[in-house]
Design a protein that fits this description.
Layout: H1 4-33, H2 43-53, E1 60-64, E2 71-73, E3 78-82, H3 83-87, H4 91-108, H5 112-141, H6 144-181, H7 187-227
Parallel strand pairs: 1-3
Antiparallel strand pairs: 2-3
Helix pairs in contact: 1-7, 2-4, 4-6, 4-7, 5-6, 6-7
Length: 228
């Protein structure tokens, strides 16, 4: 179906794309972790201020172990910031904290894509865990029905990743707007904050791109198998 060279190029791409995205995130974050915010606010203070400015008082801000482990847990109503970002006063840490609060604001405003993503979680989880089992079984047994089932399950996981993109980009846009409006960053710090947020978004874009490429590959395999 594909030439050996095409296979090498394809697998090279799906390996290089996520690695590049991770390297970009780490290098950008490390660079701006060394630059202190002019406000002198910690990530925890940034998160709390933005939430207060938006009338949100039912969400806690907590430190969590690890690096770049920051996330918002809507089920527990908690923003969890990695310790460096929670206690630190860097531009990078402030931007990450504001991004996570962007998700809090989405939740408070019942943002449609966030609501859709939440509903897709069980389907995406099932698809991620079982799609390859069906696909491999279908390929080994020569049963196109199993292959198709695996593709459908994989498609659910891919849709979840695609829906995640507008959720993450919107959270970053909200973060920038809130930091500027709240006076957390000066004009000359906006560019640096955007670089941090854009680098983080790149990981989601890379993940979605690889997922789509894999889905297309298996769809082509299914089509070819049924044409033989």
């Amino acid at each position: 179906m594909f030439s050996p060279m095409a296979f090498l190029i394809y697998f090279g791409l799906i390996l290089i794309i996520p690695i590049y995205a991770q390297m970009r995130v780490k290098s950008t974050f490390n660079k701006f972790s060394q630059k202190q915010s002019s406000s002198g606010m910690t990530g925890a203070q940034v998160a709390q201020k933005i939430m207060q400015d938006n009338g949100i008082y039912d969400v806690t801000v907590e430190p969590v172990k690890g690096k770049l482990t920051d996330h918002y847990d809507p089920s527990k109503k908690a923003v969890r910031l990695s310790e460096d970002n929670y206690y630190g006063t860097s531009i990078a840490g402030n931007a990450v904290a504001a991004h996570e609060v962007g998700h809090v604001i989405q939740d408070a405003q019942d943002y449609s894509f966030m609501r859709l993503r939440s509903r897709l979680v069980p389907f995406a989880s099932f698809g991620s865990n079982f799609s390859f089992i069906f696909i491999i079984a279908g390929m080994l047994l020569g049963m196109s029905q199993l292959l198709l089932a695996g593709i459908i399950f994989m498609a659910a996981a891919v849709v979840f990743q695609l829906v995640t993109l507008p959720v993450e980009f919107d959270a970053s846009n909200r973060a920038m707007g809130q930091m500027v409006a709240s006076g957390i960053i000066r004009n000359d710090e906006e560019k640096s904050s955007k670089k941090v947020l854009n680098a983080a978004a790149l990981t989601y874009v890379a993940g979605a791109l690889v997922a789509v490429l894999e889905l297309v590959r298996f769809i082509l395999m299914y089509v070819m198998a049924n044409n033989d």
